[in-house]
Specification:
The complex is a heterodimer.
Chain A: H1 2-13, H2 21-40, E1 52-59, H3 63-76, E2 80-87, H4 89-97, E3 104-106, H5 110-118, E4 122-139, E5 159-162, H6 167-179, E6 187-189, H7 192-200, E7 206-210, H8 211-217, E8 221-224, E9 233-241, H9 247-258, H10 260-268
Parallel strand pairs in A: 1-2, 1-3, 5-6, 5-7
Antiparallel strand pairs in A: 3-9, 4-7, 4-8, 4-9
Helix pairs in contact in A: 3-10, 4-5, 9-10
Chain B: H1 2-22, H2 28-32, H3 35-68, H4 74-86, H5 89-100, H6 107-112, H7 121-147, H8 150-157, H9 162-191, H10 194-199, H11 210-220, H12 222-249
The chains are: A alpha/beta, B mainly alpha.
């Protein structure tokens, strides 16, 4: 955003030649490209031609499992192309509100699904398809010797959490309330990915994240379980989007996610069944 | 010719207009005066001022060397210094992390001396300096080149030593270029997001600058995020207003 603006500023100062015929051609081509890409993202329609596109908006934590499930869905539905768009749940809701074409929306928390429901974007009522619980991630080798959630309150432990305004931070606050342990974090990140980044790079001694994040990080982190984590479950709702071009296909995709194959794949990533 | 030009202007103007239209002016003051917003704005101003000072301190000698001396690796050095201009800030953040982070190339030696920049305001300033330095160096080097060496040579033949030439001739001549470079560096520091988020973290009053606060506000209070964005737009407009006439004419001035 602002980066590009500055790039232009400096380009001016490097003494680029004023607009020439060639430049005009380049600009023209760029405009054409923009227009064409605009057409390409139409998606969702699928009435014409053989290929039908099913567009799925899903929380970033679902990336690995949904990519596999989408591949399976395409295999079972020849001619269907599943387009996946992963992002923070609140970002996805904003995109949906702005009229982005989607058939299925899978949120990482109830609050963002509620926002979508309130904005009249959802067809029917959402159902819960998975749950995620918190855990503690420490860099491999556990340099600060963390053995419990209580240890995180120690002065010599640099702990990173999510800010309370984002779902993982709200959940962390609930764990603090439950256990009576008050954390004094060195950073309150805006996403769980940023918390993981600080842990995997060894910047922080520990981070409060989701179990699925620890699974996805593999060997770069170790897990220290939280005793009462089961009492704070973050539920993942899924629903058909009202503007869906393929309501039937959307429902079939949701059935796959909620069915045995979907649940097994999600469990591999550390999700719990609802 | 005219059509692409108008389109080009619109690409920039329309989003800004969209933002302004979206602002809830009735509640504007309430939205931007929350405790977290004020803390973020104050932190942003302090860190941007500190990183601009660092840019001047480190960037001025660098620009002088690039403009006034000739060595084989000069092109390479200049390209290297320009790198933060074209790098995605998040990549800059990752690079900083692996240089000055606790386990980083240089950072691990900081640790030995019981000193760590991780999660401190220093880390924010470091990230901002990293991304802003090219603006100062490029602007100042351009000014030095267009100022030429005539007066410097003249002063030297009249017996002025290198130090005197620098202070009495060179620096006063390029002061406008230095000022506009510094203003652009300040603006870039104020807007820094990616590298700060990746490298410094996010804690109110310590590392959570205004762009980070806007990003977070978006989660719960989009109206406040829009209002705070307008504050940054206003600052940016002011900065461009101050520096642009000079910054853009530097290259074209007869040398």
């Amino acid at each position: 955003m602002s980066r590009q603006g500055h790039g232009r500023d400096s380009a001016g100062r490097f003494g680029w030649a004023p607009l020439s015929g060639a430049t005009t051609a380049v600009v023209g081509a760029a405009v054409m490209a923009l227009a064409l890409s605009g057409c390409g993202t139409g998606g969702g329609g699928g009435a014409s031609g053989e290929n039908t596109t099913l567009t799925v908006y899903a929380a970033a934590s679902l990336t690995e499992s949904f990519e596999d499930l989408a591949a399976q869905f395409e295999e079972n539905h020849p001619g269907v192309d599943v387009q996946l768009n992963f992002g923070g749940s609140s970002t996805l809701v904003t995109q949906l509100q702005d009229g982005a074409p989607a058939d299925v929306f899978a949120s990482a928390d109830q609050a963002n699904m509620d926002k979508a429901v309130d904005a009249d974007l959802i067809d029917g009522s959402p159902s819960i398809f998975a749950g995620n619980t918190l855990t503690v991630a420490v860099p491999s080798g556990n340099p600060a010797g963390v053995t419990s959630f209580e240890d995180l309150a120690g002065d010599d432990v640099d702990v990173v959490v999510c800010e309370t305004r984002v779902p993982c931070g709200t959940a962390t606050q609930k764990i603090e309330d439950l256990t009576g342990v008050t954390l004094d974090p060195v950073s309150e990140e805006s996403s769980v990915t940023d918390v993981m980044g600080k842990v995997t790079s060894g910047q922080a001694d520990a981070g409060v994240v989701y179990r699925t994040d620890v699974k996805a990080a593999g060997d770069s982190v170790e897990e220290v379980e939280i005793d009462r984590a089961d009492q704070v479950v973050n539920e993942y709702p899924i629903a058909t989007v009202k503007s869906a071009g393929n309501a039937d296909l959307a429902r079939e995709f949701i059935e796959l996610v909620e069915g045995p194959d979907g649940q097994a794949r999600l469990a591999e990533e550390g999700f719990r069944s609802p | 010719m005219i059509l692409p030009a108008v389109l080009g202007a619109l690409v920039v103007a329309v989003p800004v207009l969209g933002l302004v239209v979206q602002v809830d002016f009735a509640g504007f003051w309430r939205l931007i005066s929350s405790e977290s917003s004020v803390a973020a704005l104050w932190l942003s101003l302090r860190t941007a001022a500190a990183s601009t000072a660092l840019c001047i301190l480190l960037g001025t000698p660098l620009a002088l060397v690039l403009a006034r001396s000739d060595f084989t690796a000069k092109r390479l050095v200049r390209s290297l210094i320009l790198l933060p201009l074209v790098l995605p800030p998040v990549v800059g953040g990752i690079a900083l992390l692996h240089a000055f982070g606790r386990a980083g190339l240089v950072g691990r030696y900081f640790e030995v001396f019981g000193f760590s920049v991780a999660f401190t305001t220093t880390a924010v300033v470091l990230a901002q300096t990293f991304v802003s330095l090219p603006f100062l160096v490029v602007g100042l080097e351009g000014a030095l080149r267009s100022a030429g060496t005539r007066y410097e040579g003249l002063a030297a033949t009249l017996g002025a030593g290198p130090g005197t030439v620098l202070h009495r001739i060179t620096l006063p001549l390029v002061l406008p270029g230095l000022a506009s470079g510094a203003v652009l560096a300040f603006a870039r520091s104020l807007g820094e997001f990616g590298a700060t988020l990746t490298f410094a973290g996010s804690l109110q009053g310590v590392t959570r600058t205004l762009p980070l606060e806007i990003y977070l506000q978006r989660e719960t209070d989009p109206a406040a995020a829009v209002a705070l964005s307008l504050v940054l737009v206003a600052v940016a407009v002011a900065v461009v207003g101050i520096s642009a006439p000079r910054a853009f004419s530097v290259g074209g001035r007869p040398g």
